[in-house]
From TrEMBL:
Pfam families xref list: Lactamase_B, Rhodanese
Domain Rhodanese: 262-352, 366-455
Annotated coiled-coil segments of the chain: none
Gene Ontology molecular function: any one: metal ion binding
Gene3D superfamilies: Rhodanese-like domain, Ribonuclease Z/Hydroxyacylglutathione hydrolase-like
Protein name: MBL fold metallo-hydrolase
Length: 456
């Protein structure tokens, strides 16, 4: 039996390849899908089935892209009309060699969500694994707010029923294979655990021990952020995303061309570190560090205007491009040839962002001309504590609250360490704020320097 989990970094997306008897199936494939064919080819197997556990909101699904070269059948939940594939219902079974896949309808995260129960009939009739999509994670369950606030209670009730009537009655030894791991925005607090079982989740997952009403109230009152790009993901994944065939080819732009593109509303994204960005950057550019791209590009980039990258040495840009393609940004166009050095060698104007250490901020904590802006997730602010006198606006919602920030004061932005703080500083600068400082080290450095974090 073939079983392989493919992890997509940062998005914390899990997809799976299973196979037997010369056949293979892929569950929840990503859009850059060559890896699945490579795995199947290595095992002398042909991919014949592709399963989507739900339409997904945080990345572009890869089933159409994978079906093109393989000819595999795409299967998804039948409770919502898709523009492609075949809808499946509760109890339907599919054979992949000796492996039997049984469909369990498990709505709640989305209405059409399904889980896939796997048996290896050559060994036993007992269930071996269950692919739970976004219904059940290690240490958490799926979010129920994405259908809208008016349906949140109903979706939470559906999820409770799916968990307690379909998934948890399975034998304790059944291996749980979710569509996401720790760090995904599709759950509130997914555990950093590679594998789990039904029995382990029943014993340790706090949400699973709740009675129905407590569970529903917990999910209804859960505070999670929804990036704006989720709307585009739902549309693409329901209708069928466009085929890309290969990763986009990036064009190398000269510094003069970049200056021209800025005038034409191109989206220039500086992917360097906060310290590099603070030392000097192209005016009006957005600073999203490499590892933060999948998490924050969806808040601030549109799907129409060309996207151009600025780095120091332009290393491993193929990996960066994958982040954009997985979120449907096919308008990724190019990069600054020669890196940021090419910009200042030409004598172009540069902008700088201020930086402070925790000690610098402590010395100005009572200064009325300083306005401290905390851009962390609100749950981190409440759980870890906050700096005295700080104001809170989540970095993803910053543009919606610019009027609340006093332009005449020195704005000291902070997050946990400094990366989201640099993103926030770049957004403020782009909107005309001229006295912005990023607290390097954030609350982590603040606490390490033995300064207090307050809790309400």
């Amino acid at each position: 039996m073939l079983f392989e989990k493919i992890k997509s970094e940062i998005l914390a997306h899990n997809s799976y390849v299973i196979g037997s008897g010369g056949e293979a199936a892929v569950i929840d494939p990503r859009r850059d899908c060559l890896i699945y064919g490579s795995i199947a080819g290595r095992e002398n197997m042909k991919i014949t089935k592709i399963f989507e556990t739900h339409k997904n909101e945080d990345y572009v699904i890869g089933s159409r892209e994978l079906a093109r070269p393989t000819g595999a059948e795409i299967l998804h939940g039948a409770r919502e009309a898709f523009g492609f594939g075949t809808g499946v219902r509760e109890g339907e079974t599919f054979m992949i060699g000796s492996l039997e896949i049984e469909v369990l309808e498990t709505p709640g995260h989305t209405v059409e969500s399904i889980s896939l129960l796997l048996r290896d009939r050559s060994v036993s009739d007992d269930p071996l694994m269950v692919f739970t999509g976004d219904a059940l994670f290690a240490g958490d369950v799926g979010r129920t707010d994405l259908a809208g606030e008016d349906l949140r209670r109903e979706m939470s009730e559906m999820l409770y029923a799916s968990l307690h009537e379909k998934i948890l009655p399975l034998p304790d030894g059944v291996i749980v294979c979710p569509a996401h791991g720790a760090g995904s925005v599709c759950g509130g607090n997914i555990s950093d655990r590679e594998y789990t079982t039904i029995g382990f989740e029943k014993a340790t997952n706090r949400l699973l021990s709740m009675e129905r009403e407590e569970f529903v109230e917990s999910k209804v009152n859960e505070r999670l952020y929804e990036p704006p790009y989720f709307t585009m993901m739902r549309k693409l994944n329901r209708e069928g995303p466009p085929l890309i065939y290969n990763l986009p080819h990036l064009r190398a732009y000269s510094a003069r061309e970049i200056r021209f593109l800025l005038d034409k509303k191109a989206q220039i994204v500086d992917i360097r570190s906060p310290t590099s960005f603070a030392g000097g950057h192209i005016p009006g550019t957005l600073n999203i560090w490499r590892q933060g791209l999948p998490l924050y590009m969806g808040y601030y980039l549109n799907y129409e205007d060309p996207i151009v990258l600025v780095d120091d040495f332009n290393l491993d840009l193929d990996r960066v491009v994958r982040h954009f393609v997985r979120l449907g940004y096919d308008n990724i166009a190019g990069y600054l040839a020669g890196g940021f050095a090419a910009w200042f060698r030409q004598g172009e104007e540069i902008e700088r962002a201020g930086t402070w250490s925790p000690t610098d901020l402590a010395e100005h904590l009572d200064d009325p001309s300083v306005w401290i802006l905390d851009v962390r997730n609100v749950n981190h602010r409440e759980e870890d504590g906050h700096i005295a006198g700080s104001h809170h606006i989540y970095v993803g919602h910053l543009e919606e609250h610019l009027a609340e920030i006093p332009e005449e004061k020195q704005i000291v932005v902070h997050c946990d360490v400094g990366f989201k703080g640099s993103l926030a500083a770049s957004i403020l600068e782009k909107h005309g704020f001229r006295n912005v400082t990023n607290l390097l080290g954030g609350t982590v450095g603040w606490a390490a320097a033995n300064y207090p974090l307050l809790k309400d």
